[in-house]
Amino acid sequence: MFLKNFIFVFFLALFSASISAQNDSIIKPIELSKKELRKQKKLKKQSIQGTYSPLSPSKAAFYSAIFPGAGQIYNKKYWKAPVVWGALAIPAYYYQINNSDYKRFRNAYRLRKNGLVDEFTVNGVEVVSTETLETAQEQLRENRDFSLLSGIILYILQIVEASVNAHLMQFNTDDSLTIKPTIIQDPIRVDAPVVGLNFKIRF
């Protein structure tokens, strides 16, 4: 009876030791892998903070929305700011001209309809007919609206350009992404040179 109890206790101790050893062998690698993952995440965050700023595109778009060309200046593309200003100045200039001419013809048309003298009537003679005044109003209004639409489109495009440029500036472009033209001589065909194109992709 004593021998049976001893054998039972012995096997029970061995079984518990093997279970604890298995648990230790399973738990330790998981703990180590978690620590390594944390270290890798910290290193990735540090590297990302140094090269990539997720708020940069939104800042560039915000500055361009407040003042056209400011987003390009924020991206340090200073030469683009005068281009933006010139592009927006053209529709603004034509809008002002068409709007002022439209108001002139509209006032003249109203005065003439009310039997009053307008600026296009000289010494009782109508230099510009009533039909021409009406047609000119329609044409100038269309030109004015087109100038306004062009200015709005250019304003939106410069915001989009600043945001996209801020995105593209943060991509890591190293030597593996460049094109390097080289001349390789063929030892077999020395007399008859052959022109070709070869691409090499390195990972």
Can you offer a commentary on this structure?
- The protein has 5 helices and 2 strands.
- The radius of gyration is 39 Å and the shape is elongated.
- Residues 17-30 and 46-50 have low confidence and may be disordered.
- It has a two-stranded antiparallel sheet.
- It has helices at 2-51, 56-66, 70-74, 80-113, 130-169; strands at 121-122, 125-126.
- The chain has 203 residues and is mainly alpha-helical.
- Helix 2 (56-66) packs antiparallel against helix 5 (130-169) and helix 4 runs antiparallel to helix 5.
- The protein has 2 domains: 8-51; 54-172.
Features:
203 residues; mainly alpha; 2 domains; two-stranded antiparallel sheet; 5 helices
Name the overall outline: elongated
The beta-strand count equals 2
Helical residues, percent: 55-70%
Number of domains: 2
Beta content: under 5%
The low-confidence parts are 17-30, 46-50
Side by side, the strands of the main sheet go: 1-2
Number of helices: 5
* Main sheet attributes: strand count, strand direction, barrel closure: 2 strands, antiparallel
Q: What is the end-to-end distance?
A: 71 Å
Mean pLDDT: 77
Domain DUF5683: 54-203
Keywords: Signal
InterPro entries: DUF5683
Organism: Polaribacter marinivivus
Overview in brief:
The protein is mostly helical and 203 residues long. 69% of the residues lie in helices and 2% in strands.
List the helices and strands and how they pair.
Blueprint: H1 2-51, H2 56-66, H3 70-74, H4 80-113, E1 121-122, E2 125-126, H5 130-169
Antiparallel strand pairs: 1-2
Helix pairs in contact: 2-5, 4-5
